From TrEMBL, chain A:
Protein name: Putative SKP1-like protein 3
Gene3D superfamilies according to UniProt: Potassium Channel Kv1.1, Chain A (3.30.710.10)
InterPro entries hit by this protein: SKP1, SKP1-like, SKP1-like_dim_sf, SKP1/BTB/POZ_sf, Skp1_comp_dimer, Skp1_comp_POZ
PANTHER family: SKP1 (PTHR11165)
GO BP terms, alphabetized: jasmonic acid mediated signaling pathway; protein ubiquitination; ubiquitin-dependent protein catabolic process
Keywords from the UniProt entry: Ubl conjugation pathway
Domain (SKP1 component POZ): residue spans on this chain: 120-178
Pathway the protein takes part in: Protein modification; protein ubiquitination
Sequence similarity: Belongs to the SKP1 family.
UniProt-listed Pfam families: Skp1, Skp1_POZ
Residue ranges occupied by any SKP1 component dimerisation domain in the UniProt entry: 215-261
Species the sequence originates in: Cocos nucifera
TrEMBL record, chain B:
PANTHER family: F-BOX PROTEIN-LIKE (PTHR31639), OS01G0730200 PROTEIN (PTHR31639:SF285)
InterPro entries: F-box-like_dom_sf, F-box_AtFBL13-like, F-box_dom, FBD, LRR_dom_sf, LRR_FXL15/At3g58940/PEG3-like
Descriptive protein name: F-box/FBD/LRR-repeat protein
Organism (species): Cocos nucifera
Top-level taxon: Eukaryota
Domain F-box: 1-47
Pfam name, any one: LRR_At5g56370
């Protein structure tokens, strides 16, 4: 076998890769938007986000580190070992937008030091006039707000005409807990309690999270809504969403026929 | 309440539901009637399908969903142990026409299937996880220009096949190869690779990965099974010397001992100094974990070398291989000089 010896030592990491990566990300977005097959731009997919996050050379996105079995009696016995990722319950991609508070602070700081000196504290104004004073790092949990600040449109207050006061207070509560950080299990537990406590307003919070582009909160709410409606009857689901049944009996019958195979 | 939700939110809710319930939402109203059919993600996990559709009927279920689905399918996850080659070929064809970006197939441990050639022409693929498959790219295969994550488990592929695959995916960042067979001389040249996991039986490792941050290497098998032809040692050096950005290193099995099995003239003690002196491979190394650490000199020398040349080292974990004289090992470890003040050496 002929070996190809290449000069690989020293790496020499060129920092111009940063520009290339950003161009790539931009190209991907443009391509998706102007795709001639009229496919929807894959913006919401977590996998794209993760991909873009990992490409930024100064990003502190966590890598998915393989985990070896630690407690097998004979380490040389590999027969029973299977990598963790083949466990179906772990098939969800690591959502790398759940960064810890230090990382989001580190990330927020260099980006916001562009033209205008960003305020350390911002005031979020809801649709009905309620105001919430929060730290910059808390407000930056929302990509929408973060972009507004980076573009220099914000001096002190951020108007959010699409979000009502009570809903915004719940969102801010979530963000504050996220910024505090902590162990994953603790955060998960807190998320569970949050969802349980805010059951009544879950839909509003979900829509607000979507508008504010706060991915972890949005994911959490959507999953909670899905879990809620999962065992409901069709009428209950309609009531939950406030949907009017505009299907004629003829249409209902046709849907039943087409989808009969699911229920048989 | 909410009268109409934007498509993004609808899609996200439908994706979070078990597939059966997602299809049931077609009864809700006109807006919802066809909402499920344009979900961008399809996840077929055994427990999410109706209970009457088990085993052979599962194939029928997947076929019908794919038939009624319209629009792009960005994510496709299939976890089931009752699929056949013909069905997989069929589904791959549908996916290749719908812009598949993320593909995960976990088909159990019994059957092996040949990855259909249509997969190799899906140019939008970003994330691929396959298991129990035979991976043979066709001759016209030009690579996956967007592929970022590739995880292959229990896969059969050739040395050349692997080398060509890796070098033709310019954006590859995560490569996990576990329980592979058919390739023994691994050559991985990927300029953007960040995470590498290799676990299996191999005889040689050739790395060209200047940006590697996490490396997890496990060597399967027993001593004596390897045919060390002398070329291995220099490649081990080359492997460690070509990962200057490494931050986390996990070594399982007797990967290090292998390189010293046939000791030539150079004594083990001088081995690292002579060959690694001019380069500093572990400038950013923070975490090291050596599993099945036995009290052979090769292992000690490696630990000593890492401790003395890794200024950012935070933690070194050594899991013992059940060696009897622990205190002797610990005494030896304590003596080694450390380049990093905060280095913790943990011996389990």
């Amino acid at each position: 076998m002929r070996w190809r010896h290449r000069a690989c030592g020293g790496g020499g990491g060129s920092s111009t890769d940063a520009g290339a990566d950003q161009c790539w990300a931009l190209g991907m977005l443009l391509r998706a938007l102007f795709d001639s097959k009229r496919r929807k731009a894959p913006m919401v997919s977590a996998s794209i986000r993760e991909t873009v996050a990992v490409r930024r050379p100064d990003s502190e996105a966590k890598y998915e580190v393989p985990v070896w079995p630690s407690s097998s009696p004979n380490h040389r016995d590999f027969a029973n070992w299977r990598p963790i990722w083949t466990d179906p319950s772990r098939l969800e991609l690591k959502n790398s937008s759940t960064m810890s508070s230090e990382e989001s602070a580190i990330e927020a700081a260099p980006e916001t030091s562009k033209k205008v000196e960003p305020p350390k504290v911002v005031v979020l104004q809801s649709y009905d006039g309620e105001e919430f004073e929060v730290d910059l790092v808390v407000a930056s949990q929302s990509e929408t707000i973060k972009n507004m600040i980076e573009d220099g449109c914000v001096e002190r207050s951020v108007p959010l005409p699409n979000v009502e006061g009570p809903v915004l207070s719940k969102v801010v509560r979530y963000w504050k807990r996220r910024v505090e950080g902590g162990k994953e299990e603790e955060l998960k537990q807190w998320d569970k309690e949050f969802v349980e406590a805010e059951k009544q307003q879950l839909l509003e919070i979900m829509v607000a999270a979507h508008y504010l582009n706060s991915q972890p909160l949005f994911d959490l709410c959507c999953q909670a809504v899905a879990d809620t409606i999962s065992n409901m009857t069709v009428e209950d689901v309609r009531e939950y969403f406030g949907i009017e049944n505009d299907l004629t009996p003829e249409e209902e019958r046709r849907i039943r026929d087409v989808n009969r195979w699911v229920f048989d | 309440m909410i009268s109409s939700l934007p498509k993004d939110i609808l899609d996200k809710i439908l994706i979070s539901l078990p597939l059966k319930d997602a299809i049931r939402t077609s009864f809700l109203s006109r807006t919802w009637r066809h909402a499920w059919a344009s979900m961008p993600e399809l996840l077929f996990i055994d427990d999410s399908i109706p209970s009457t559709y088990l085993n052979a009927n599962f194939l029928l279920f997947v076929d019908r969903v794919l038939l009624l689905h319209k629009g792009p399918i960005l994510k496709f996850h299939l976890v089931s142990s009752c699929c056949c080659q013909v069905a997989i070929d069929r589904w791959m064809l549908v996916l290749s026409r719908n812009g598949i970006q993320e593909l995960v197939l976990d088909l159990g441990h019994d059957e092996w299937y040949k990855v259909p050639s249509t997969l190799f022409f899906c140019q939008e693929l970003i994330n691929v996880e396959l298991s129990n498959c035979i991976f043979e790219p066709p001759q016209m295969f030009k690579g996956f220009s967007l592929l970022s994550t590739l995880k292959l488990s229990r896969t059969t592929l050739t040395d050349n096949g692997l080398e060509n695959l890796v070098s033709s995916c310019p954006l590859l960042e995560n490569l996990w190869l576990t329980d592979f067979n058919g390739c023994t001389h691994l050559k991985i040249h990927a300029p953007k690779l960040k995470v590498l996991m290799i676990f299996g039986f191999f005889e040689d490792l050739h790395l060209g990965t200047p940006k590697l941050v996490v490396a997890s290497i496990g060597l399967d098998g027993k001593a004596g099974q390897h045919d060390v032809a002398g070329g291995t040692k220099s490649n081990l050096i080359q492997a460690f010397g070509s990962i200057p950005a490494i931050e986390e290193l996990q070594i399982f099995g007797y990967f290090i001992e292998l390189a010293f099995e046939e000791t030539p003239m150079v004594p083990v003690g001088k081995f690292w100094q002579l060959n690694m002196d001019k380069r500093f491979p572990f400038k950013h190394l923070q975490n090291v974990c050596l599993s099945s650490f036995s009290d052979l000199e090769a292992n000690f020398e490696f630990v000593k070398f890492v401790l003395s040349t890794a200024p950012m080292l935070k933690k070194m974990t050594l899991r013992s291989d059940g060696c009897p004289d622990e205190s002797k090992v610990l005494r030896k470890l304590l003596q080694f000089p450390r380049a990093s003040k905060q280095a913790e050496v943990i011996y389990i």
